């Protein structure tokens, strides 16, 4: 008889590509047994389920693992049975039009039985959420949950009901323009933060996220990827916070950069008219990297789900990209505050809160960190502070180790930075987060926009400027030789 796999063999298999792991019968057998034991003890094993899901989720138990991650609990079948799914409503016609076009290549979802189930689940969601309206795309969101829970409509409904508030809070309001426009602005900032070259090119040809990204975010990519790819993407998306989908979008653009950077407007429109082939496993890896290298306040959204009144202790592992939403954390005078769409559009890069800056720069001060990044002992500071105030103001008090590049004299007529020791320091730190700090005028915003135009990566602006630090012990008098 063949020998069973040892722990070392299973560990080695876990390091192989996902497509290989899913075809390894013995590996899947061990993973399924483990998950079934964990699910029987849920919710007491919630943290362990999260931890194991970081490795992979076996297809055989994916439906119930997703439900556990989404914290679906209670008597869901009684709830679903109590919802009116039969009475005719004004949205019925649109639902009936959308369903026959939703993932109809899928053998299960293309059946008449599936269409009837689709309609009941969608009608239940609309009925149960009177504050929202039915938007096209809701059918795509429902599809993966229905495919996984084909014989359990109540669980499919409950997963959809838990998923939407977390990732699409207020997206399905009758007037959702403010929510979507803020989301797209933050997405544009994130592109510029990680890839200013691509951001400048797309902006230059007028190919803005409004033209291609709305179906991505409104359906959390369920409209643009086939289900066999989508489930692998959502295996990780469900572990991230509500901002993680933005990082997925940047990862997709990163994968297509070689094409996009050489395309004009019409070619870009044509490229995204039908989603190009995307390596999902690489996309997931890039998304995690992007998230972990982005200060959490840089992707703050005022329209994200408000903080829960109570947060279950130890319900999730305290690990980088699995961290809670920015809005779930306590706020203080150094936290981010809402900005209007006009204010967001006025700058090409994100803002960063003073608390994130303090942690990343290893400054001392009263702060409760919300950054998703983890610092290593004795590691170098992860940011470079650029103070763009005039030298007289800079000399009266600034952030420790910051460099001074006064905005008024920073650029030559050709638009490049004038050479000076501070610019040399800036150029010597290409991978560090660059925090532009100014006073009450718009010089910091304008300087940051110019840095993005020049192709500098990881540029952001300190929210509320230098004044936010006046009541802290952070500011110091710079050495005379700076």
Description:
- The chain is mainly α.
- It is built from 23 helices and 5 strands.
- Strands 1-5-4-2-3 form a 5-stranded parallel beta sheet.
- Helix 9 crosses helix 10, helix 11 (177-194) packs across helix 15 (244-255) and helix 14 packs parallel to helix 18 (280-292).
- The protein starts with 6 loop residues before the first helix and ends in a 20-residue tail after the last strand.
- The model is unreliable at 313-322 and 365-379 (pLDDT under 50).
Write the layout of secondary structure elements.
Layout: H1 7-14, H2 18-21, H3 25-40, H4 46-53, H5 62-69, H6 76-82, H7 92-98, H8 112-128, H9 138-148, H10 153-167, H11 177-194, H12 196-204, H13 214-218, H14 227-237, H15 244-255, H16 257-260, H17 265-273, H18 280-292, H19 341-345, E1 351-352, H20 354-360, E2 383-387, H21 391-396, E3 403-404, H22 421-427, E4 433-437, H23 443-453, E5 459-462
Helix pairs in contact: 6-10, 8-9, 8-10, 9-10, 11-12, 11-15, 14-18, 15-18
Domain Rhodanese: 379-478
Pfam families: RabGAP-TBC (PF00566), Rhodanese (PF00581)
InterPro entries: Rab-GAP-TBC_dom, Rab-GAP_TBC_sf, Rhodanese-like_dom, Rhodanese-like_dom_sf
């Amino acid at each position: 008889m063949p020998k069973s796999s040892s722990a070392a063999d299973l560990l080695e298999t876990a390091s192989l590509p996902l497509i290989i792991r899913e075809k390894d019968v013995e590996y899947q057998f061990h993973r399924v047994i483990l998950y079934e034991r964990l699910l029987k003890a849920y919710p007491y094993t919630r943290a362990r389920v999260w931890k194991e899901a970081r490795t992979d989720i076996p297809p055989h138990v994916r439906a119930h693992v997703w439900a556990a991650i989404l914290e679906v609990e209670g008597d869901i079948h009684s709830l679903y049975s109590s919802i009116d799914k039969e009475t005719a409503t004004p949205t019925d016609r649109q639902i009936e039009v959308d369903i026959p076009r939703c993932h109809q290549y899928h053998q299960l979802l293309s059946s008449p039985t599936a269409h009837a189930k689709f309609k009941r689940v969608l009608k239940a969601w609309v009925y149960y959420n009177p504050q929202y309206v039915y938007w096209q795309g809701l059918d795509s969101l429902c599809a993966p949950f229905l495919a996984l829970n084909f014989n359990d409509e109540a669980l499919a409904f409950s997963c959809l009901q838990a998923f939407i508030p977390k990732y699409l809070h207020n997206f399905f309001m009758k007037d959702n323009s403010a929510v979507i426009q803020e989301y797209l602005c933050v997405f544009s900032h994130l592109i510029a933060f990680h890839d200013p070259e691509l951001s400048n090119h797309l902006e230059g040809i007028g190919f803005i996220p409004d033209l291609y990204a709305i179906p991505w975010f409104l359906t959390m990519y369920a409209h643009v990827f086939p289900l066999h790819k989508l489930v692998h993407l959502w295996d990780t998306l469900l572990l991230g916070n509500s901002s993680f989908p933005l990082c997925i979008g940047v990862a997709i653009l990163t994968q297509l950069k070689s094409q996009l950077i050489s395309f004009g407007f019409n070619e870009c429109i044509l490229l995204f008219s039908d989603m190009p082939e995307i390596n999902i496993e690489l996309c997931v890896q890039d998304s995690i990297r992007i998230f972990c290298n982005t200060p959490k306040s840089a992707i703050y959204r005022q329209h994200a789900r408000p903080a829960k009144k109570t947060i279950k202790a130890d319900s999730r592992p305290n690990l980088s990209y699995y961290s809670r939403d920015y809005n779930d954390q306590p706020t203080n005078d150094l936290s981010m505050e809402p900005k209007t769409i006009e204010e967001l559009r006025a700058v090409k890069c994100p803002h960063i809160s003073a608390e994130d800056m303090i942690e990343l720069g290893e400054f001392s001060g009263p702060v409760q960190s919300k950054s998703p990044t983890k610092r290593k002992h004795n590691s170098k500071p992860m940011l470079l502070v650029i103070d763009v105030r005039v030298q007289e103001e800079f000399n009266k008090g600034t952030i420790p180790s910051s460099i001074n590049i006064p905005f008024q004299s920073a650029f030559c007529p050709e638009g490049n930075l004038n050479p000076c020791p501070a610019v040399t320091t800036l150029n010597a730190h290409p991978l560090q987060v660059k925090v532009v700090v100014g006073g009450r005028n718009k010089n910091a915003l304008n300087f940051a926009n110019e840095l993005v135009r020049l192709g500098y990566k990881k540029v952001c602006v300190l929210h509320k400027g230098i004044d936010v630090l006046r009541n802290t012990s952070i500011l110091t008098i710079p050495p005379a030789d700076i």
